[in-house]
Amino acid sequence: MSNGTTQEKPLNELLSRSMVDLYVGPSNTHWILHEKLLCHHSPFFRRTFYKKDSKASDQKTFGLPDEEDHPFKTLVGWLYSSSLPVPREEADLSMLFDLYLMAEKFDMAALVADVLQVVREWYKYSDTYPGLRRVQYVYANTEEGSPMRHMLVHSVARLMVLEKGIPAHWDKALRKNGQLAVDIIKAIQDWKLDEESVPDARDDPAEAEELVDVEAELADVEEGGEGEGEEEEVEEEAEKGEGESEAEGEVEDDSEDTVVDSPMQPNHPEPTKDAKKKNTGEGMISGFKKMAFNSVPNGITNGDYGTLH
Question: Where does the record place Acidic residues bias (predicted)?
Fold first, then answer.
């Protein structure tokens, strides 16, 4: 099954008499393995057991307290059988991802290739894509250039292109993990798509117009123009009214009496004859006329009251 770069040798040639003792996990599970077989597949263990120092080379015991028992057991099974368990459901991939990380740590290229093939085939034949948790886990524990990371990000890129929208959890993750977003873009670039198959928004203005209601925008502009015209007319009338009030104030010294009381207030004193005459407009200078409330430009109606300026 192995497609790695390690040159294959018959198993019988790798089952030497020399053995090594490995203690794995927090429980120090003891494994006794053939030294030649282990070192053949792992440069990491070759550096550990084949040191130039003669005293160190006699040491055949090594501890791996940070490793998990289950994936290491699968690693041992692969060493002696060159086979891996086939996942039956997505949950079974957890152990395979842990095994993959272990294989990268021990520089076991053949095991890396085999695990990658099993995971890829599971997604292919189950017609599914890697979930966000899987991708984040691999990204957190691998370096740039990792084959598993490459496979996952290319799968996600295809998912994003084919989906109508980006799922909310992916959207949130991509905003936080800029490197993942960049890698997805690079993955799409790696496809070397034919230029004719890639939509060009510059050649299709109708596509942009769908995002903007042009008719509504034009209507708003027209309404805005009419509104400005009305405001100008109101301002002109207001200025005219102010001019008339100032002229009236220059002629009559008692212009401050133009305070209009509320029509609802009772017990007002009886106005004098002069006041009545003034209120009827008879005492106003020729050419001026009294303005009705409904003609005041600021919108005051007959029901409003206050000081007119």
Answer: 216-259
